Amino acid sequence: MAVDGESVVSMPMAVAACVAMAVSYVLILYAPTVILRLPAASSYFEFMIRRFICAAISTVVSLVFTAFVLPIKSWEASPILGVYGIRTDHLWQGVVYPLLLTSLIYAGSLVLNLLLLLELWKETGGGCCSFNNIKSFFQTVLTGASNVSVWRNFVVAPVTEELVFRACMIPLLLCAGFRIYSAIFLCPILFSLAHLNHFREMYIRHNRSYLRASLIVGLQLGYTVIFGAYASFLFIRTGHLAAPLFAHIFCNYMGLPVLYAQGKGVVSVAFVGGVVGFVSLLFPLTKPLMYNDRTNDCPCWSGYCLWN
């Protein structure tokens, strides 16, 4: 997006900055052992904590860099946070509506889980709500809360990735004059490339064959491109970082959508119905005016000023 007909950030600079942020986000994950030459972590917990710290450092550097490159007129907290889509106004809309929209893609998965729950309920004679089951549920929650993999999948990765690949990159691209659709599909490419490090983990750490590792990572990259485009779309349409963030957490929890389950045709019907509902409601549930009342004096990177 341009101001007074002129781009406030050059296109080459915006692209270079986005590429640099994507590369640095990946490289810094290997900083302790590869770049800084520190000893290898003695445990998986220590390994993940190091990664959390490195991801946080990379994210903060990207946020500071973006703030200095963009033409921010006020250095007060609220305007700066607003640049990154961190807002409190219309927050519940920014969380609930995108989550409802995202859940439609997982209609098949949700129906399958419901069917499995009903089967379990029948097998236990309707005792699913017994004290032992409730106790087991809370024990599972507490165990997950102390699991570093849970923190990686549902906190650290979604927060840092959305801040870097949505909150930082999209404002830069829009202020450089890129069209909205160009920004939506450029960020996911960088987002997917940032997941190439998974190939190293699959090939070396998990001892997969080169072909199998390539196929697994290729599928992951395809999925991240699709999700990245959707997350970018949510960020621009709503102007809320919360929209792609909670969608990201939800998708990490659900995994790949279930399209088919043997002997349960209703799952496929639910999936198809969910996709139809998703396509039908994609624009109505992300209408910018639902997420912000302001229509004037908006900076060029504010997503809620676009597509009114």
From TrEMBL:
<dbReference type="InterPro" id="IPR039731">
    <property type="entry name" value="Rce1"/>
</dbReference>
<keyword id="KW-0812">Transmembrane</keyword>
<feature type="transmembrane region" description="Helical">
    <location>
        <begin position="266"/>
        <end position="285"/>
    </location>
</feature>
<keyword id="KW-0256">Endoplasmic reticulum</keyword>
<feature type="transmembrane region" description="Helical">
    <location>
        <begin position="12"/>
        <end position="31"/>
    </location>
</feature>
<dbReference type="Pfam" id="PF02517">
    <property type="entry name" value="Rce1-like"/>
</dbReference>
<feature type="transmembrane region" description="Helical">
    <location>
        <begin position="95"/>
        <end position="118"/>
    </location>
</feature>
<comment type="similarity">
    <text>Belongs to the peptidase U48 family.</text>
</comment>
<dbReference type="GO" id="GO:0071586">
    <property type="term" value="P:CAAX-box protein processing"/>
</dbReference>
<keyword id="KW-1133">Transmembrane helix</keyword>
<feature type="domain" description="CAAX prenyl protease 2/Lysostaphin resistance protein A-like">
    <location>
        <begin position="149"/>
        <end position="254"/>
    </location>
</feature>
<dbReference type="GO" id="GO:0005789">
    <property type="term" value="C:endoplasmic reticulum membrane"/>
</dbReference>
<protein>
    <recommendedName>
        <fullName>intramembrane prenyl-peptidase Rce1</fullName>
        <ecNumber>3.4.26.1</ecNumber>
    </recommendedName>
</protein>
<keyword id="KW-0378">Hydrolase</keyword>
<keyword id="KW-0472">Membrane</keyword>
<dbReference type="InterPro" id="IPR003675">
    <property type="entry name" value="Rce1/LyrA-like_dom"/>
</dbReference>
<feature type="transmembrane region" description="Helical">
    <location>
        <begin position="172"/>
        <end position="193"/>
    </location>
</feature>
<feature type="transmembrane region" description="Helical">
    <location>
        <begin position="213"/>
        <end position="236"/>
    </location>
</feature>
<feature type="transmembrane region" description="Helical">
    <location>
        <begin position="52"/>
        <end position="75"/>
    </location>
</feature>
<feature type="transmembrane region" description="Helical">
    <location>
        <begin position="241"/>
        <end position="260"/>
    </location>
</feature>
<dbReference type="GO" id="GO:0004222">
    <property type="term" value="F:metalloendopeptidase activity"/>
</dbReference>
<keyword id="KW-0645">Protease</keyword>
